Amino acid sequence: KSHKNLPPSPPKLPLIGNLHQMAPGPHRALQSMAQTYGPIMLLHFGTVPVVVFSTVEGAKEIMKTHDVVFSNRPFLDIGGRLTYDARDIVFASSGEQWRQMKSISVLHLLSKQRVQSYQQVREDETILMIRTIQQANESVINLSELINTLTNNVISRVALGRKYERNEVKAILDGIVELLASFSVGNYIPWLGWIDKVRGLHRRADELAKDQDDFVEGVLQEHENKKESHVERKDLVDILLEIQRDNSTGFQLERYMIKAIIMDMFGAGTDTTSTTLEWTLTELLRNPRVMKKLQQEAQKVGQGRSFIPEGDIDKMPYLKAVLKESLRLHTPVPLLVPRESTKEVKIMGYDIPSGTQVIINAWAIARDPSIWDEPEKFKPERFLNSPIDYKGVHYEFTPFGAGRRKCPGITFAMVVNEIVLANLVYKFDFGLPGEEGLDMTEDVGFTVHKKLPVRVVATPCEQFDDCKG
Ligand code: HEM
């Protein structure tokens, strides 16, 4: 028994703690538990104590007031095996190495100027996708798959310099996503970690880590062997190798670190971006009024040209509001990435011991009726003439996190989302095939996807009066 004032806890079962209460998906389950136990709860995932925050005040305490204390990550066994023992950026604990690697990603790889320099890549890939849709000739298309291929291709060309024919990266990524979504007993009941071994989880993770390493090693060698004169535009691997060679940051960037950073870009950047577009299009199909208003904005800006270029996106405030509303209602990573306290602190009257895992239910906060008017409705208008954005200073809306651990890929992700969405609604009108309804079921994993892909019939816009604005 301690004399600490710990947050309220729901009853738990021996051994598994509260894990059995996580259906139908942890973000939804935790939201409804918070209605009974309050905005700060102490849960037990197996034997691991986890404090869950579900209000804007709590989010601000963790990601602003006590950001330094909570900028550590817990070690997750499977995630660690896939990221050079958690020595990447996403899963790394908050030491000097993480700080240096994060700073390289923010200043050299994902800065605004760097992201801008890849405009052509995004435009090319968007045009390619439009052509594929046109060629389908109004037959049913799987839009989810097309979008996922596009985001994968964009990151591939930006990070590695080219697309890979046999789509090796995608096979590896699919394996990683599947593995991260599978439940690891060892993460929560450490002394039962052997169960993961018996289930073959360790073997699969180690095999995948090897495939991943072989693949990135091949990419690095290809870059080291290429003739400088053939370099059209520097990709992220070129930049990282240059930083390593010149030691320009004063930090010894090891080879495995370059590999870990590159795989983070894929792991953290592909699925999250395509999920955003998937839900956005789903909401547009469910809300014809919003779709029409967005198409009218696109027609006004496009002015009959064959494509809306990136330079014109700033003339589309409604498009930006639609994407924000989609990130609010369908926060792609609803519980952000878990953090861990590095010393004991008092938050909102409760003691949070050192080494406690912390989860912020950003999804629940973004649907809190005390903050948002009609929170369950898809109303992009709420973001028009509002200063609220996703850059990590408005704690009621943090789809990319905030503070030191904030996502460094915000600009990268949003310019892809914007150019793709603008041109999809500019070029096509979308309808559901035949008798198929719109399914909203979520598939819960690290990111929350649609369980079923978005299948639509795309009619070229010229044939629709509404589309002409
Ligand atoms: C819509 C797309 C995206 C969403 C919703 C998203 C969301 C997030 C979230 C919630 C976190 C954790 C933040 C926290 O702990 O407070 C994160 C971290 C991260 N994201 Fe993103 N992300 C997206 C796109 C990207 C892209 C495109 C990249 C890179 C190309 C990227 C790279 C990273 C990295 C490296 C981290 C780890 C940061 C750290 O631990 O210090 N993300 N992201």
TrEMBL record:
Give the matching PROSITE patterns: CYTOCHROME_P450
Q: Which UniProt keywords apply?
A: Heme, Iron, Metal-binding, Monooxygenase, Oxidoreductase, Signal
Which Gene3D superfamilies does the UniProt record give? Answer: Cytochrome P450
Q: What is this protein called?
A: Cytochrome P450
Q: Please tell me whether the keyword Oxidoreductase is annotated for this protein.
A: yes
Highest rank taxon of the organism: Eukaryota
| Associated pathway | Secondary metabolite biosynthesis; terpenoid biosynthesis
Q: Name one GO molecular function term.
A: heme binding
